[in-house]
């Protein structure tokens, strides 16, 4: 007798307000599309898991803990859907952890992260453009991605190009920790000569990076740097998990691996 489950794997966040609007919203979308699957959750950031356990007394499973839970519950077939943006280090580690349990289940299949194909790139460009349909061509929308040393980081530059190629000349995508960097973005935005810069996180949650590196008062924050360069700046604290198009894309990825 088959007993099916879907495990949503996220990096995690220590901010409850953005967790409800993003990670939990994605999980609800998956539940809606998979009514015959039991829903489980795991987070990959050991630091965040430890922090909320100590601070809030809340335990959230790591991937190995979630796999052990499903095994104990008699689950036979598992769809694992990451809410990661790219196929990077976190995703690789998550697969290794999950597959160490392969002998305990009839099947374990993985949905793809958000940006895994050309059609994903197109869908995400459209989701962002629709979310920010209110901006004018006098504004520049600057999106802050995380960035990684993993080769999958090339996705960010490719997506920045894709925005322009699809006609959104005033949407720019950079990263906190890799390329395209803030220096590249500043150069490109200056060439565009907008009246106003709108900053938004290109991350599933609007957590630490969004609050500090993007919108913080520190002179190194993107907000402060654009203000110093003479722009009027507005910050939109909305994670990608709040975008309808992004949540639906994760559900499509989960469906396509079954």
Describe what you observe in this structure.
This protein is 44% helix and 17% strand. The protein is α/β, with parallel strands linked by helices. It has two domains: 4-113 and 243-256, 3-Layer(aba) Sandwich (Rossmann fold), CATH 3.40.50; 118-240, Rossmann fold (3-Layer(aba) Sandwich), CATH 3.40.50.1400. Strands 2-1-3-4 form a four-stranded parallel sheet, sandwiched between helices. The longest helix has 14 residues, at 118-131. The two termini are 17 Å apart. This is Cobalt chelatase (CbiK).
The gist of it:
44% of the residues lie in helices and 17% in strands.
State the separation between the terminal residues, measured CA to CA. 17 Å
Strand content: 15-25%
Query: What CATH architecture of the largest domain do you see?
Result: 3-Layer(aba) Sandwich
Radius of gyration (Å) = 19 Å
Mean pLDDT: 96
CATH topology of the largest domain, by name, is Rossmann fold
Q: Helical element count? A: 11
Helical/strand content category: alpha/beta
CATH class of the largest domain: Alpha Beta
Order of helices and strands: EHHEHHEHEHEHEHEHHEH
Helix content class = 40-55%
- Spatial order of the strands forming the largest sheet: 2-1-3-4
- Uncertain segments are none
Any idea what the shape is?
elongated
- Please, how many domains? 2
Number of strands: 8
Biggest sheet character: 4 strands, parallel
Pfam family, one: CbiK
EC number: 4.99.1.-
GO molecular function, one term: metal ion binding
InterPro entries: Anaerobic_Co-chelatase
